[in-house]
Write a structure and sequence with these properties.
- By secondary structure, the protein is mainly alpha-helical.
- The chain has a domain at 2-107.
- 80% of the residues lie in helices and 0% in strands.
- Helix 1 (2-14) runs antiparallel to helix 4, helix 2 (19-50) packs antiparallel against helix 3 and helix 2 packs antiparallel against helix 4.
Length: 176
């Protein structure tokens, strides 16, 4: 907002809305005056060669000088002094560049804010309750206690089956 105010102050102070557009108008004027100067100078040259004592030579020379003076004046208006358009254009371009940068920064900040809001909404979806929690189910499988008892019984059975063979071998070695 401050850049818009600065740009408005510049336009009010310099009484120019767009110095770049005004300079293009001045350049167009210089071009048109240059064309008229060339036409008049050519007419003067033809008149001086055709009849050196012609009464039209004086007014034609006056027109050539007037066109050249007007072109010089327009060039001075465009660039030449502190009051010319060149420093105004530089200040205006600087102010418009600041304004454009501020607009882009604002748009970027708005886009980032919208992205952050969307991200927050997306994260809220993860926090919503989908199913109410319940008690855990009772495990059906594996039967831990049963398998532990079966393993213990199988081990005991194997121990009992193989134990007499170990006692028989030890009783043979001992004489009684």
């Amino acid at each position: 907002m401050a850049t818009e105010d600065t740009l408005t102050d510049f336009r009010t102070r310099e009484t120019v809305i767009d110095p770049a557009q005004l300079s293009s108008t001045v350049l167009t004027t210089i071009g048109a005056l240059s064309l008229q100067l060339v036409d008049t100078a050519a007419e003067l040259d033809v008149t001086e060669r055709a009849s050196p004592n012609s009464p039209q030579i004086g007014p034609l020379r006056g027109r050539v000088r007037a066109f050249q003076a007007q072109i010089d004046h327009e060039r001075a208006t465009l660039a030449g002094s502190d009051m010319s358009l060149a420093p105004k254009i530089a200040n205006y371009e600087r102010l418009t560049l600041r304004r454009d940068f501020a607009e882009r920064s604002f748009i970027s900040a708005m886009n980032l804010m919208e992205a952050a809001q969307l991200d927050v909404l997306r994260q809220q979806e993860y926090l919503e309750t989908v199913v109410a929690p319940g008690l855990p189910d009772k495990a059906r499988y594996p039967y831990r206690v049963l398998w532990t008892l079966v393993t213990f019984a199988a081990g005991l059975l194997l121990f009992v089956l193989f134990r007499p063979t170990t006692q028989a071998a030890s009783s043979r070695r001992r004489p009684t």
